[in-house]
């Protein structure tokens, strides 16, 4: 299945001559997968490039710019080095050069690969600041693929960058995407269900994918090979300009896997809360009169004529009809409510309504395709690329926008005709024709909703004026009246959150996921990070017999507590059938800075492989125990043992229960994992109904593993 | 008796340097292996060549001694990461000398880096680029213009449009 991407007929070569030369800098053959390993020399090892040619091509930039001085031939002023100790350059001698363009010419006289080396030492903001200095620099920076490739290499997964490049206009666009979604990478959690709600956001293919690790038992191949069971939650795909704009929510309805397209409202660089919301936009925002374009992001295409003309046409069609969404949020008037201000039931109903309207069934070939690279297969890149293209096409057909009048009607908030007339609205369709049109399409739906709706009788508060907080539905109506179309949207923002021992305190009624602070091992805090383990000894092996061993995932972090440095093991996922202790409880806390004064002996002599157990150190501490009800666990004394091979084990003193842990890399485990079916869309994102059991185990057999292949 | 290599600058001046000094440049090393010992460098002016030779002389003296354990460990560590620059200069005296060496104005620095890139003297390229990057990092466009004496030829509307277009880069820390 040789898939070649050819965008050559999309973005024609730029008029400026230097781009014709820089096109040599891009490999002319399609990049084989996994080939682009970056060596210790940052200069890319393109086989076709003659290094001498590059160095001597330093004049190619210069030809495009007027009044340049010739590089290497300074006016013969006879100055010695000692006199040139000023930071600001002034031209000496002059020649044809004027003082003004002298500065930019310095940069423009550099060969592209030297510019790329400078770029590797800068952040994207510095590069953009340089581009803002003058037109010449802007053209040079925007057009240089190498410069932006150097930036991408600092951000994204190195081997696939050239492959991803083919889906966007330029490396600059790719850099924009990588910086945009970078704050989302990591682990996100929610308090509910109490067994654990862990969503890992990892790189997909020109996308990031959020996948949930579901509560499960230890797999037949042990901790590191599992396979780990996971279910997809959402994806964010890049568009051709590198904007992280295409959002897909995963869900399952009526026994079929579905995708729910939406938009990405914004991603804060220091996001710690990920919210699923409904956005309201005006017609002008979604279908702008003039297509939005990036004037300077001209791409370079160096690929030869495609062998597969049909495929190239498919790519070009999918890109030229791109509707670029208005990336900035529309200005909000102070008085109108935002989604977060709406009451919980309205938010839930709105989300479910929009999801039901934008639902796309997943075609069978797409259902089996991987979401991210798996460890098992080598040709995943092709399948991932195909899947990406198909998702883009699906997004084009249905970008996920719904006429808000339909929502208004269905949710019963449009009955306040008095309120409606008081609010100044600006939409092209008249209210009556709009209602008539949408009414016929949602009659059946409306009946369903009326029957299900448990909200108070609508006529009772018919005198509510718009904007007043008296009636719940008036607020919803006002929210919807802000625009013409509504759709699902994802917003990553920063909120002030308190936390208790590495576990954030979360709102119970927000459709949100919360960032688990990442703790990385540093000197003096070597055990920080995510660990996995089970109860019982020997560690990491499934027990004989029917019932498996519950798999636990814990976040180990350090804290100063009462003058000691302690190691806290926060439970983030528990694989039992019915939860024992609240999500985010500390399974144990140990005084890691000192050895146990009265060291307990490790209860076992040998481990699973009949090797002698070697205790490196032991630390006293406390382990979780039943306390006053579920909410308030207690603690009992125990000892933490640091064993050989990087194993940790905590032994409760009285019961001699043992929790043994190994460090895990969740992203790596997912690559070897197994996909399981998901829940309906909105609860798949945030399951807000209080639950103590495994709500994610949608398939019949729980103790075994799902027989469905990935 | 050290073997001497003759370098001829763009304006015709000749410079005789010891072989080990000249061999700091990988290009010169390759050329000398095939051809003779007179190497014309038409794109490098005398002024720049003098500075480059000065750098090479200083670093040849250091490189001729076997790597100390600390510097070889640093070299091993830096080359094991996926992206790295040439091995960092570990000798503090040499680092101090380097810092003094790059106290030059912008045009001289750029001349040197172009010559060093042409001659493939990796350490010198890295040193100069590090200095240049430091003069750019964290600065607004106006400050960079002042630093490098660049004239702003954008109209205010164009500049505003560009800023908006690039706003994604300024959002993230």
Automatic annotation (TrEMBL), chain A:
Give the transmembrane ranges.
15-33
Specify the superkingdom.
Answer: Eukaryota
InterPro entries cross-referenced by the UniProt entry = At5g39450-like, F-box_dom
PROSITE patterns linked: FBOX
RNA-binding recorded as keyword: no
F-box domain residues are 104-151
- Indicate whether Transmembrane helix appears among the record's keywords: yes
Keywords from UniProt, A to Z, are:
Membrane, Transmembrane, Transmembrane helix
Q: What name has this protein been given in UniProt? A: F-box domain-containing protein
């Amino acid at each position: 299945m040789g898939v070649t991407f050819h965008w050559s007929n999309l973005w024609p070569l730029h008029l400026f001559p230097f781009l014709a030369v820089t096109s040599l800098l891009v490999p002319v053959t399609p990049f084989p997968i996994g080939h682009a390993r970056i060596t210790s020399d940052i200069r890319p090892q393109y086989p076709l490039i003659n290094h001498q040619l590059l160095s001597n091509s330093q004049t190619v930039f210069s030809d495009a710019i007027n009044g340049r001085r010739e590089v290497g031939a300074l006016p013969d002023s006879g100055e010695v080095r000692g006199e040139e100790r000023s930071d600001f350059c002034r031209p000496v001698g002059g020649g044809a050069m004027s003082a003004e363009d002298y500065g930019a010419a310095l940069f423009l006289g550099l060969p592209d690969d030297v510019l790329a080396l400078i770029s590797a030492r800068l952040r994207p903001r510095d590069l953009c600041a340089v581009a803002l200095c003058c037109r010449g620099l802007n053209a040079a920076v925007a057009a240089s693929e190498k410069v932006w490739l150097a930036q991408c290499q600092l951000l994204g997964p190195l081997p696939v960058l050239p492959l991803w490049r083919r889906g966007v206009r330029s490396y600059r666009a790719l850099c924009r995407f990588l910086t945009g979604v970078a704050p989302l990478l990591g682990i996100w959690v929610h308090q509910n269900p109490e067994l654990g709600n862990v969503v890992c956001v990892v790189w997909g293919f020109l996308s990031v994918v959020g996948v949930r690790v579901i509560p499960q038992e230890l797999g037949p191949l042990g901790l590191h090979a599992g396979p780990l069971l996971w279910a997809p939650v959402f994806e964010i795909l890049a568009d051709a300009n590198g904007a992280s704009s295409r959002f897909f929510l995963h869900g399952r309805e009526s026994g079929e896997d579905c995708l729910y397209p939406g938009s990405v409202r914004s991603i804060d660089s220091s996001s710690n809360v990920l919210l699923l919301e409904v956005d309201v936009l005006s017609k002008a925002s979604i279908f702008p009169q003039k297509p939005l374009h990036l004037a300077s992001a001209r791409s370079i295409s160096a690929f030869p004529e495609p062998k597969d003309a049909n495929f190239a046409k498919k790519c070009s069609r999918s890109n030229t009809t791109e509707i670029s969404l208005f990336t900035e949020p529309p200005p909000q008037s102070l008085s109108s409510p935002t989604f977060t201000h709406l009451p919980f039931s309205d938010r839930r109903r709105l989300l479910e309504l929009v999801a039901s309207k934008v639902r796309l069934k997943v075609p069978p070939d797409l259902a089996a395709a991987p979401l991210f690279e798996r460890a098992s297969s080598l040709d995943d890149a092709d399948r991932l690329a195909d899947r990406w293209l198909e998702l883009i096409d699906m997004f084009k057909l249905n970008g996920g926008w719904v006429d808000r009048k339909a929502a208004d009607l269905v949710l019963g908030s449009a009955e306040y005709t008095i309120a409606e007339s008081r609010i100044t609205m600006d939409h092209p369709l008249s209210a009556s024709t709009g209602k008539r049109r949408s009414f016929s399409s949602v009659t059946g739906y409306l009946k369903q909703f009326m029957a299900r709706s448990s909200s108070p009788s609508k006529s009772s508060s018919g005198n509510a004026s718009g904007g007043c907080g008296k009636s719940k539905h008036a607020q919803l109506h006002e929210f919807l009246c802000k625009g013409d179309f509504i759709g699902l949207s994802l917003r990553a923002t920063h909120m002030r959150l308190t936390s208790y021992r590495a576990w954030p305190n979360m709102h119970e009624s927000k459709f949100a996921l919360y960032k688990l602070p990442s703790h990385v091992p540093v000197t003096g805090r070597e055990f920080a990070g995510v660990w996995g383990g089970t109860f019982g000894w020997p560690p990491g092996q499934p027990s004989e017999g029917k019932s498996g061993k519950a798999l636990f995932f814990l976040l180990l972090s350090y804290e100063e507590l009462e003058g000691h440095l302690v190691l806290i093991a926060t439970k983030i996922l528990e694989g039992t059938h019915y939860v024992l202790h609240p999500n985010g409880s500390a399974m144990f806390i140990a005084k890691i800075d000192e050895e146990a004064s009265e060291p307990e002996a490790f209860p076992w002599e040998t481990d699973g492989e009949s090797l002698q157990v070697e205790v490196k150190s032991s630390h006293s501490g406390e382990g979780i125990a039943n306390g006053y009800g579920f909410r308030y666990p207690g603690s009992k004394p125990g000892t933490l043992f640091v064993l050989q091979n990087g194993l940790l084990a905590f032994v409760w003193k009285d019961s001699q229960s043992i929790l043994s842990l190994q460090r895990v890399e969740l992203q790596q485990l997912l690559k070897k994992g197994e996909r399981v079916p998901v829940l309906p869309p909105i609860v798949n994102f945030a399951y807000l109904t209080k639950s103590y059991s495994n709500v994610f185990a949608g398939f019949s057999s729980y103790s075994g593993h799902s027989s469905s292949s990935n | 008796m050290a073997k001497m290599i003759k370098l001829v600058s763009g304006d015709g001046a000749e410079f005789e340097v010891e072989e080990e000094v000249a061999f700091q440049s990988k290009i010169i090393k390759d050329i000398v292996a095939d051809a003779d010992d007179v190497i014309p460098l038409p794109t490098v002016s005398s002024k720049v060549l003098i500075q480059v030779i000065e750098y090479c002389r200083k670093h040849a003296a250091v490189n001729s001694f076997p790597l100390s354990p600390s510097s070889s460990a640093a070299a091993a560590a830096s080359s094991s990461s996926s992206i790295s620059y040439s091995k960092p200069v570990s000798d503090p005296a040499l680092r101090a000398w380097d810092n003094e060496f790059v106290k030059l104005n912008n045009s001289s620095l750029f001349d040197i880096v172009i010559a060093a890139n042409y001659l493939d003297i990796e350490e010198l390229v890295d040193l100069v680029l590090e200095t240049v990057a430091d003069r750019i990092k964290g600065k607004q466009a106006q400050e960079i213009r002042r630093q490098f004496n660049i004239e702003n030829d954008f109209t205010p509307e164009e500049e505003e449009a560009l800023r908006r277009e690039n706003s994604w880069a300024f959002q993230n820390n």
